[in-house]
Amino acid sequence: MTYPPLELTLSLVKAFDPAGNDRAARSKLATHTLLERNAAPFDRKTFDPGHITASAVVVAAERQAVLLVYHKKLARWLQPGGHAERADPDIQTTAMREVLEETGVAFQDASDWPLVGIDVHEIPGTETEPNHRHHDLCFSVEASRCQVAAVEPVAGATWCPIADLDRYGVDQALRTCLTRALHVTL
């Protein structure tokens, strides 16, 4: 078994348009470099310069809410996502699997999920891992609202009304992905 295909992931990164967003442009370049120069860019034990992760902005069908998880380690609300596994056939499936694992929300197929963000961010070290970077590829999908059930390492999962993003402390990177997913300015 291998990780998601490198060439497929690299083509998604190359095709991503940061649309004038400086952070997204820097993240795209850093992620492109990681994919081209690192022998194990999907391996969660690749700490320098980091590794690829995948997440999803899951928007409710009525487009008035977004699925969030409360991450205990980072102590904040985020979109569901996480590390690639060797059995993942592509990076979109990584995002889909992570949504299911963290929230219980399931999807049939992730192959047509558009890439709406690339964000490189610092992850604080632990007793078993040094500080490192996640090169996160964020995909978008629309879902009917369904019951959510938080699973480790998240402490909660909820449908957050778009109007309540400030109350949940949603960061700018997630807001940018959500803006792209909804094709509106937030």
Structure description:
- The protein has 186 residues and is α+β, with helices and mostly antiparallel strands.
- 27% of the residues lie in helices and 28% in strands.
- The strands form two sheets. A four-stranded mixed sheet has the order 4-1-6-5, with helices on both faces. The protein has a three-stranded antiparallel sheet with strand order 3-2-7, with no helix packed on it.
- Helix 1 packs antiparallel against helix 2 (22-37).
- The protein is globular and about 40 Å long.
- The model has no long low-confidence stretch (mean pLDDT 91).
* Helical fraction: 25-40%
- Head-to-tail CA distance between termini: 41 Å
Number of helices: 4
Helix and strand string, N-terminal first? Answer: HHEEEEHEEEH
Poorly predicted segments: none
The main sheet orders its strands as: 4-1-6-5
Q: In percent, how much strand structure appears in the residues?
A: 25-35%
Which geometry do the CA atoms define? globular
* SSE class: alpha+beta
Radius of gyration: 15 Å
Record keyword descriptors for this entry.
186 residues; alpha+beta
Short structural description:
The chain is α+β, with helices and mostly antiparallel strands. The protein contains 4 helices and 7 strands, in the order ααββββαβββα.
List the helices and strands and how they pair.
Blueprint: H1 6-15, H2 22-37, E1 51-60, E2 65-71, E3 76-78, E4 81-83, H3 91-103, E5 115-123, E6 132-143, E7 154-161, H4 172-182
Parallel strand pairs: 1-6
Antiparallel strand pairs: 1-4, 2-3, 2-7, 5-6
